[in-house]
Amino acid sequence: MPKDNTKIRKCLFPAAGYGTRFLPATKAIPKEMLPILTKPLLQYGVEEAREAGIDTMAIVTGRGKRAIEDHFDRSYELEHQINGTSKELLMKEIRDIVKNCTITYTRQVEMKGLGHAILTGQTLVGDEPFAVILADDLCDNDGEAVLTQMVKLYEKYRCSIVAVEEIPLEDSNKYGIVAGFEEEDSVLRVTNMVEKPESKDAPSNLAIIGRYILTPDIFDILEDTKPGKGGEIQITDALLTQAKQGGVIAYKFKGKRFDCGGVDGFVEATNFFYNKTKE
Questions:
Q1: 115-140 pLDDT, tens digit each
Q2: What is the Cα–Cα distance from 108 to 114, expressed in whole angstroms?
Q3: CA–CA separation, 120 vs 164, rounded Å?
Q4: Residue 197 CB partners (closer than 8 Å, separation 6+)
Q5: DSSP secondary structure, 102-124, as one string
Q6: By the 8 A CB rule, do 247 and 160 touch?
Q7: What is the mean pLDDT of residues 170-197?
Q8: From residue 160, how far is each of 18, 133, 169, 220 by CA, in Å?
Q9: Contact present, 71 and 94 (Cβ < 8 Å)
Q10: Which of 54, 192, 232, 264 could be stapled to 49 by a disulfide with Cβ–Cβ 3.0 to 4.6 Å?
Q11: Residue ranges per domain, the chain?
């Protein structure tokens, strides 16, 4: 049967970074496995992808990341120990993921930027549109999850999509920044993208966060993308090539996002979800 290129079936998780902002904790523990309450960041991301109707998770890992593979696997000894006890319920969500998802892995041997990490995942994704979740960016929504919102948009626009939010202009040097014209409420057709500009050079205050839907031609573009900011291959630079052809929209998503790549955002998310469980 021909492949249905209107449906997002796979989600790519770049998870090879060192997490140096959380040293020494991340010396032996992948930063994606740091827990918000009792659940690792990466599991939140996988659950968001599942809510969006995705059942194949493609994870780009690196050295020292074996805990990720162990987490998304059966643990027969542990399950035997807690079988029939009140603790068994605590394993329900992860057991459901292991049972119902296909999880594939490849390694990023060298850390050459997000664009390179996504290119490394090509062997797992193949020639079809796919989602990307950066587990560092933890999103919460009382309605539809951010990726669910984006998948519905993809069904309408059939092009690459980046999730964006307004930031203080002085923080522009931490993000990819986009500019464009409004297609509809909360949706912009992107005309310019700049990776981590200084505030005086930023084309807007709309920053890309860790949610993308990408069309498969992004891989050929990444192959030809030269290292940019920081000497790394930037996904923002590759997306700009698509944007110049009218192939990228930016979506001001509904929901709350926490930057768990830093201690402040991590603590904020922990407090938020703790209070939410008490409610």
A1: 999 999 999 999 999 999 999 999 99
A2: 10
A3: 24
A4: 172, 173, 177, 203
A5: EEEEEE-SS---HHHHHHHTHHH
A6: yes
A7: 91
A8: 28, 14, 25, 14
A9: yes
A10: 54
A11: 10-278
Using alpha carbons, select from 148, 162, 150 the residue that is nearest to residue 195.
Answer: 162
Give the chain's count of helices (H) and strands (E). Answer: 10, 13
224-239 confidence digits (pLDDT tens):
988 877 788 889 999 9
CATH match of 10-278 with 3.90.550.10: yes
Q: What is the mean pLDDT of residues 210-233?
A: 90
Give yes or no for a contact between 136 and 261, defined as CB atoms under 8 angstroms apart.
yes
Confidence class for position 1, pLDDT limits 50, 70, 90:
very low
For 40, residues 6+ apart whose C-beta sits below 8 A from its C-beta are 32, 33, 34, 71
| Pair 236, 176: CB distance under 8 Å | yes
Q: How many CB atoms lie within 10 A of CB 223?
A: 11
Kindly tell me if the per-residue pLDDT of 34 is higher than 90: yes
How many other CB atoms are there within 10 angstroms of residue 142's CB atom? 8
Residue 244 · residue 214 · CB < 8 Å: no
